[in-house]
Amino acid sequence: MEGEHPMPKSTKPRSGKKSADLLQVLAETGRADPQLDPQLDPEELQRLYRAMLLTRLLDERLLKLQRQGRIGFYGVSTGEEASVIGSAYALRPEDWIFPALRQGGAALLRGYPLEQLVAQCIGNSLDLQQGHQMPCHYSHQPSHFVSWSSCIATQLPHAVGFAWAAKLKGDPLVALAYLGDGATSEGDFHVAMNFAGVARAPVVFLCQNNQWAISVPLARQTAAPNIAVKAEAYGFPGLRVDGNDVLAVYRATKEATERARSGGGPTLIEAVTYRVGGHSSSDDPSRYRSQAEVRTWQKRDPIKRFAHYLQAKELWSDGDDETLRQALDEEIGQAIAVAEAAAPPAPESLFEDVYARMPWHLQAQLRELRTQLQSRKEQD
Ligand SMILES: Cc1ncc(C[n+]2csc(CCOP(=O)(O)OP(=O)(O)O)c2C)c(N)n1
User: Which of 16, 239, 278, 306 has the fewest Cβ atoms within 10 angstroms?
Assistant: First the structure.
């Protein structure tokens, strides 16, 4: 399989070492392996496609908003939509997601309202977090989507703790923890993987190996032949899937989550994909990687591949695609309009959502703020 999915030079596993096979359901032409096709029904397939396309179009619009100074920061998931949507789709509503930077599409799939996502990037009063978090660091309790700390890999021990608690309580829940290839070099990765293995916690680690951690290529991240192999040292399965193949990602995650739910313990899934865009709106990737490498991966676009599959099944046409794109563009435009119309957060909200019981010194500062706001009002 490895030969069918060649990687650019800088991201190739070391020669001479055998790496695990890559699970692929869809060939790059969109042709499905009949033995591996999960046989989702037409509505489900179209829902997956819509979610991937929404993610792509939303990323394009929000990055433009950032360039226009209308939001402060943004991180796209362009090229990684199959890894995000295929894995999130494998969960049950009662399961929980511990995301990293690029999983906003998963939150939307699970019911995060689009205008609230945009408002989160702005940080205004429509934002559930009232601007307390960095833009693009979403959380939405009803979707079981947990807030992320920018400190790389910290979500992994959180996910394991959650999963272990669920196991102790006898709740049949699974935690899906997302991470990038760079996160595998953090101490928290080892802590989480080790503890998950020992406790046989119902957690699935979904590593989007997008080949880069800002400007650090995979070849400088690890001397191991791949990321999936690391699971072996912790005593649980690790597997590699084609991260640009939504059905392969879905299939692998479904198997892993159901094994976890039935007491079979954790799994590490390495979704082999590529970060087509910059690391974030603050990054210029042309300073450290070649356009030829980017173009190679752009040819493996996960959305186009899935569209070919749907077309071959006569579930999709170019006309359907155009109609959906227009509808999504409109939906995004409306969400932006609603989000931008919201007022800034109330100054007092600075004091909310940190302590269950506010300490005395913050109570004093809050009183002082209120007095100042009142006297300003009287001056106006
Ligand atoms: C502990 C820590 N070290 C460094 C950083 C700076 N930093 C932010 S994102 C990032 C790279 C993350 O790469 P990866 O885990 O591969 O995820 P990706 O962004 O590629 O999805 C780094 C080093 C950080 N946020 N936290």
Answer: 16
